[in-house]
Amino acid sequence: MIADIIAKLIRFICGASLRGETKVPDQAVYFSNHTSHLDALLIWASLPKQTRQLTRPVAARDYWTRFPWRRWLAQNVFNAILIDRDRVTRQDNPVRHFIDALKAGASLIIFPEGTRNSHNDVAPFKAGLFHLARACKSVPLVPLHLGNLNRILPRGEILPVPFLSTISFGSALQLERGEAKPAFLTRTRNSVINLAHS
Amino acid sequence: MNLVIDIQTIQLVTGTGILLILATVVGRIMPRFATSEGATATVANFQARTRSWWVMVAVFALAMATGGIGSIILFGLTSFFALREFITQTSTKAADHRSLFWAFFVITPLQYYLIYVQWYGLFALLIPVYAFLFIPVRMAIAGDCENFMERLAKIQWGIMLCVFCISHIPAILMLDLAGYEGQNAKLLFWLVLVVQISDVLQYVFGKTLGRHAIAPKVSPNKTWEGFWGGTLAATGIGAALWWVTPFTPLQAAGMAFIVNLLGFGGGLTMSAIKRDRGIKDFGNMIGGHGGMLDRLDSLCFAAPIFFHVTRFYFSN
Fold it and tell me: Using CA atoms, how far apart are residues A103 and A83, in angstroms rounded to an integer?
């Protein structure tokens, strides 16, 4: 109920229009370009209600635990998997947590660029997506492209400014038999870039 | 702002309701005559537009029923969403973020607050003087010089169209008209009704009789036949409704003609912007119509001139 209202509110604030095939698989790994703290929220909010309840966004621990209300949202509404961004203090490999969540039946929202990108292009993908795809071969990978969210809440800004945004859904991919890591990462990255121009 | 709801207000709203019932009935009958694929699409769009009209009229009537404050909030939100659609189409940069924050969250609410407190002097100057000098300074402080003039001009014009111009619709409520005290809501209704009916009729005449495009490169659907048919018919309707305005029938006809001309100009200008940006609509908030700006384009241009002509000739 509360989650439903929050989802509607997020879509409204982001002025989001959904494009492409929004009928999504029961379980999936959603991956997209990353430009704003709103990204994971909008993807989560744009999924159908049933799917949304089982979908866990991957988010930065420091940002989402800074204030009690943020922590509450991350834990109770979005059911986020919080990860340490700082490699030095990080205890373990976050991909381990992703695989555990997938094995438990959840869907994931991840950003293979690894960090928010201030430019309009899509940065090269980190290897995490590949390891995830190899560990959970049966889970479809759904590419998404988010447009204009960086204008709503750019890197380093606290207050949002209203813009209309887009979220484009691509068709699901899978790791091909014998596909090498660089080829896979290039192919998945291109699937996101292609959605930007659709 | 003490507004009264008199018998004429109720007649206006009822009349509009009857028009919408007619449109709904026509929308139900039309599919029987639609044979081609294009005709079916036109009918579906007509039905979607009619459904949205019901919602818009209901919201508008409700806002009027609450007195001045409801209309001010309604058009304030309208400005906000229109500005969002407009700025989305401009090439602003990350450095403009805080200037835009001022535009959306300070300048826009302030402009409408000034209508609420009926401070005409500052209402008329806030945007063209204070905002238009403040925004460039704020942008210069942000420090990104690339395409500075272009970014600035687009933001300024967005504020002009979406906030300054649209705010002149509810500003009608603060006009002090001789022998018309407390009745300004009817004049507001009259303006919106005449301009919107002109839009609809220009579309209808254009679809049925349109041959000669006025500016084919901008909008092939806007024809001389549609323009004259719609403008003259809507001017006739505006004149026929003179009894809800402070005008004589002839004055009402003149006023209706002026706002219809401006409404056409607004529609054509917005079409040019959309064509340049390669988009069909500014948004999708209003089913069948497109975005807020797609519906408000004609009123944007009509409202400020209507406000000032009325103020100049009829105000105490």
Answer: 18
Q: What residues does A168 pair with on adjacent strands? A: A19, A145
ipTM for the complex?
Answer: 0.85
Rounded Cα distance, B31 and B41, in Å:
10
Residue of B nearest to A148 (CA): B88
Q: Which of A151, A4, A100 is nearest to B97 (CA)?
A: A151
Domains of chain A: 2-196 (3.40.1130.10)
Sequence-distant (≥ 6) Cβ neighbours of residue B3 within 8 angstroms: B64, B67, B68, B173, B182, B183, B184, B185
Average pLDDT of chain A, as a whole number: 89
Measuring CA to CA, how many Å separate A120 from each of A124, B143, B222? 13, 20, 37
Check A163 against B283: CB less than 8 A apart: no
Residue B4 is encoded by which pair of tokens? 């009264």
Contacts A151 to B, Cβ<8 Å = 88, 92, 94, 97
Q: What CA–CA distances, in Å, run from B164 to A88, B124, B159, B184, B274?
A: 53, 8, 6, 20, 20
Subunit contact A157:B85, Cβ cutoff 8 A? no
Residue B284 with chain A: CB contacts under 8 Å: 17
Per-residue pLDDT reduced to its tens digit, B168-212: 999 999 999 988 988 999 999 999 999 999 999 999 999 889 889
Give tens-digit pLDDT for B141-176: 999 999 999 999 999 999 999 999 999 999 999 999
- Phi, psi of A169, deg, nearest 5: -95, 130
Q: Which residues of A touch B94 (CB under 8 A)?
A: 118, 150-151, 154-155
| Torsion B222-B224-B225-B229 (CA) sign | positive
pLDDT band at B1 (very low <50, low <70, confident <90, very high): low
Name the pairing type of β-strands A55-60 and A29-32: unpaired
Which positions ≥6 away from B138 have C-beta within 8 Å?
B98, B99, B102
Least Cα distance to B178 among B127, B245, B229 occurs for B245
**Residue written as tokens 């929202």?**
A109
Domains of chain B, by residue range, sit at 69-174
Q: By the 8 A CB rule, do B199 and B266 touch?
A: no
